[in-house]
Design goal:
The chain is 47% helix and 12% strand. It is elongated and about 45 Å long. It has helices at 20-41, 47-56, and strands spanning 58-61, 64-67. Strands 1-2 form a two-stranded antiparallel sheet. It has two helices and two strands. The chain has one domain. The chain starts with 19 loop residues before the first helix and ends with a strand. The protein is α+β, with helices and mostly antiparallel strands.
């Protein structure tokens, strides 16, 4: 499942409350990125892993696009 980042709003915002579901989504994205990076370092990255990594490589924070 591809990672979908949350477009967080400045505090306080009822539209982007910190919830267990959002924190678990973040954790899943971190785990997936770490697994992909680990496989890449071991020379085992597949094209499916590359697609996953590319989907995680770009996140938007406060209107600024960060390339990881």
């Amino acid at each position: 499942m591809p990672y979908t980042p949350t477009n967080w709003e400045p505090f306080p915002s009822e539209r982007t409350l910190i919830t267990a579901a959002r924190l678990n989504n973040m954790e899943s994205g971190i785990v997936s990125a770490n697994q992909t990076a680990t496989q890449s370092r071991q020379g085992q990255m597949t094209s499916a892993d590359k697609i996953k990594l590319d989907s995680l490589a770009q996140a938007e924070v406060d209107g600024t696009t960060l390339i990881i």
